[in-house]
Design goal:
- With 684 residues, the protein is an alpha+beta fold.
- It has 3 domains: 3-273, Beta-galactosidase, Chain A, domain 5; 280-507, Aldolase class I (TIM Barrel, Alpha-Beta Barrel); 586-683, Immunoglobulin-like (Sandwich), CATH 2.60.40.1180.
- The chain is 22% helix and 31% strand.
- The chain has a 9-stranded antiparallel β-sheet with strand order 3-4-5-6-16-12-11-8-9.
- Strand 13 and strand 14 form a beta hairpin.
- The longest helix is centred in the last third of the chain and has 20 residues, at 460-479.
- The radius of gyration is 26 Å and the shape is globular.
- It starts with a helix and ends with a strand.
Length: 684
Amino acid sequence: MNSSLRSLLVLSFLLLAGSLSVEAQSQTTLGRRRVDVERWITSQFAKGKTPPFSFRYGGRPSAEFLRTWKHSISRLPSEESQVRYLVTYADGKTGLKVECEVTGWQDFGAVEWVLRFENLSQNTTPLISQAQTADATFFSPKNNRPATLYYSEGSNASRSDFAPHQKLLQPKDSLVMAPNGGRSSDGAFPFFNIQTSDGEGIVVAIGWTGTWSSCVTAIDNRSVHLTAGLKHLEAGLLPGEKIRLASVCLLFWQGDNRMAGHNLFRRFMLAHHSRKVDGKPVYYPMFCGFNWGDPEPCNEYTCMTTEYAIALVQRAYLFGFTPEAFWLDAGWYTEASDYRAGKNWYNTVGNWTPDAKRFPNTLRPISDYIHQQGARFMVWFEPERVYKDSRWEREHPEWMLAAGGDNRLFNLSNPQALQWLSQTIGDILEENGIDLYRQDFNIAPENIWLANDEDGRRGMTEVKYIMGLYDYWDYLLSRFPSLLIDNCASGGRRIDYETMLRSAPMWRTDYHYGEPVGYQCHTYGLEFYLPQHATGSYHVNPFDSRSSLGSAVVFNWKLTQQGESFTDMLRTQQEFEEVRPYFYEDFYPLSGIGDLTGDDIWLAYQLHRPADGSGCIVAFRRADCQASTYEVKLSGLQPTQTYLLLNKDTNETARHSGKELMEGLTLTLPQPRSSLLLKYERQE
């Protein structure tokens, strides 16, 4: 972007961005002043203005010509507290139309937009490339200190998955972020927070379930530049062709520290950008698996049968264990149990019918029994990855994308294939009484997409594929209004702004199953942005079970194995039910950021409900930690109020003023590898 165009964009942000404005008071308190999002939209996308997105067209940057294209802006019907506009830019010479659908939420100071390109001519357009859904500079006039970028790792199946980091952006410093292999949170995380100065900032969320790319650059101590868009796109549009690109959300925040922005964003996601049933945000369930981990050669659920599944449900209820949903994972389908032929759950995907030998009456008897108990039934699928010689590959080779190896990619960019897949999986859900749909994705698709691009159409296979993925999920959610989607991709590698609208990751990482220290780290990192996610729980001792606390959980207890206690299982379930609602409230990290993966430290966090002043403190003293005490400073409290603290292990209570708790509370755990759960209530 050249300097003159940049100055125009900076000026518009100055006039509109609340405490990012010359006219506004600096360091305003959270909630006292927010962006006038409707004014922001109508100004940023006004005729004659350079909008906050960019692309190159025929080799030329859009900033050079877009203001001269035919422009229109119209308000769309919207829900309460929301404004929506459709902005179009049309080139009369080549027939390219650019649509930008923009939505703003006045109650949160948030705005999102998504780009669509359409060719209205009879000829292929010039090449479109470097498509940046966000291309904008933010300016803080009273600031003369470097901005700070708070960002997180993606999923790498390690202890450090979703670990929080910060980078002080000195002038000319930048950070480029992009995922690995075509899954949106594989090694990078498309949510981050730019603290532009003391008391203000912008939370950024990117919605693209493929290969996005973003760069945050400090121009100087007062200006930060953001780009976010697709990594791969260099293609002309065919006559009549229309595509959509990434979406971007910006949430402007003001507050005493950057957690004001994180918690405002968490509340925004729950209120406006998460799965709703009957118009209300949903609780993802407390799951129970079916005795996961049978002896060899069984793996996953390849030895499960109708009778065994029903017996395990009966056994759970017999002892008072009452999960909200039962989870049947991989291996229920045809050929998955043919061990003599070298078959297993992994190399039989593409055979999506229940194994008639083990489930002669399909999965319906299992779901019927679960429904009789008042619970729901979730089943694992992986429809996008199709293994060679599976039924789907044999019957529909024309719908497979490949680039060597044994795995094929079901071509969601093909409209006929997409329609068939939607109808087929929808029918399986209906016929088998499946309430919750678990979709895995154990393949890195980027190289397959690129290998199948046509000349002059780089990136188009991915674009059409991701469009198809959204259409597929939207079809399922429309056909089954109460359906919930668990989004898994080798464990949490497809978490982004678009997937979180339609789903939540109930298995957020494939890191070593049940290892509690890693699970503590994953909870800590994800809670900065997302209240809805879950992991497994394998043991009932408090150190392990509390490491898996969250807004949902998967109890992977073996109900037929010695060494665990049903009494402790019930205690763990009750504790989860008591703490779970607080994960939908505000989150405060009590152990800072950086490397939190060691066995020689404490890790602690606070969950706080502003409505009634209550909350929880969850803390862990790890196995090699020498310190028996740890001081934390709580947040969100009222200094003059009194708070009653209850130790859930000892039932001891203590009273402190809010001022005392915010200045320092000493946590004590005499033994290594132990945990602490404190509940507090404000005393009226």
